[in-house]
């Protein structure tokens, strides 16, 4: 079972605490079903527990017994399809959309628990979330732009405005931020899955920081090696052309230390000076040797 289906299975096992939450959850499931009209409502899912929830909520809210049609898609997967006839569909519309317009009924989802129940129902009906080892993403798919805009405005009042896009025939509202994905999962009751997302996010953050540190160290080593090569080239030329003997004792010592220790960093080299000097002082001495080498060589 996919991570997204596991989330649906987890929240399907949660029971609403009140009749108002029951109605809000069913509203979310029906509103974003595959087909919603006054003469027929079709709800389908590939998660058996979600199908059971739909049947249970219909019985609790409308005293309506429903039996899903089970369609075998393959050996490991089935589609559970429940069809509400004209009579049942009209009763649903009379309660949730008396004006016939599909939109979130503010009277049904006015409390915080009811809002969470509604989003839970919406996720079971049209939601999808990526597994935490992949990119962070949770999305809700709709049949038309009005449903997507209505849902997005609703979610903006809880989290932040989701992004909207079009994919084939669907309008999609989605979040790509790992923190928000975890918050949404926790909000609808998928606490364990939310923790998996947050744990994966923390792991990726640590790994990325380690990679940045490693790249930084490699860059520094490369820079240090390039500088050392330039310094050695200058010192060797000064020795070969008998120019080093004319320099101060400090520069002679620095030149000798670099020749004897080509792999040491500036900080390490500075500690070997007698007396020890700072890293910046050591850098200035080596730069002076290079400048002297370039100056004399250019004149020749």
Overview of the molecule:
This protein has 300 residues and is of the alpha+beta class. The chain folds into two domains: 3-189, Roll (Endonuclease I-creI), CATH 3.10.28.10; 219-299, no CATH class. Helix content is 59%, strand content 13%. The strands form two sheets. A four-stranded antiparallel β-sheet has the order 1-2-4-3. The protein has a four-stranded antiparallel β-sheet with strand order 5-6-8-7. A hairpin with a 5-residue loop joins β3 and β4. The longest helix is centred in the C-terminal third of the chain and has 50 residues, at 191-240. The N and C termini lie far apart (78 Å).
Tell me the CATH topology of the largest domain: Endonuclease I-creI
**Could you report the average pLDDT, rounded to the nearest whole number?**
90
Assign the CATH architecture of the largest domain. Roll
Q: Decide which structural class fits the backbone.
A: alpha+beta
> β content, as a range?
5-15%
| Number of helical regions | 11
Q: Major β-sheet, in short? A: 4 strands, antiparallel
């Amino acid at each position: 079972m996919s991570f997204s289906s596991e989330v649906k299975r987890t929240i399907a096992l949660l029971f609403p605490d009140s009749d108002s939450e029951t109605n809000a959850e069913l509203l979310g499931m029906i509103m974003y079903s595959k087909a919603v009209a006054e003469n027929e409502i079709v709800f389908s899912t590939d998660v058996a527990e979600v199908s059971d929830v739909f049947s249970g909520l219909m019985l609790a809210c409308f005293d309506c017994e429903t039996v899903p049609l089970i369609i075998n898609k393959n050996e490991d997967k089935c589609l559970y399809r429940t069809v509400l006839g004209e009579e049942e569909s009209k009763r649903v519309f009379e309660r949730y959309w008396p004006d016939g317009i599909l939109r979130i009924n503010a009277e049904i989802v006015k409390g915080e628990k009811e809002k969470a129940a509604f989003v839970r129902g919406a996720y079971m009906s049209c939601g999808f979330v990526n597994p935490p080892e992949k990119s962070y993403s949770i999305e809700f798919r709709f049949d038309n732009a009005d449903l997507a805009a209505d849902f997005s405005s609703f979610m903006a009042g809880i989290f932040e405005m989701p992004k909207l896009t079009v994919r084939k025939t669907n309008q999609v509202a989605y979040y790509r931020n790992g923190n928000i994905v975890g918050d949404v999962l926790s909000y609808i009751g998928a606490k364990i899955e939310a923790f998996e997302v947050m744990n994966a996010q923390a792991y990726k953050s640590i790994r990325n920081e380690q990679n940045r540190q490693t790249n930084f160290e490699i860059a520094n080593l490369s820079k240090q090696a390039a500088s050392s090569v330039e310094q050695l080239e200058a010192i060797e030329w000064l020795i070969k052309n008998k120019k080093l003997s004319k320099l101060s004792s400090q520069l002679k010592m620095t030149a000798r230390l670099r020749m004897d220790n080509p792999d040491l960093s500036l900080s390490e080299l500075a500690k070997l000076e007698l007396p020890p000097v700072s890293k910046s002082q050591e850098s200035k001495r080596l730069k002076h040797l290079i400048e002297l080498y370039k100056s004399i060589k250019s004149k020749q």
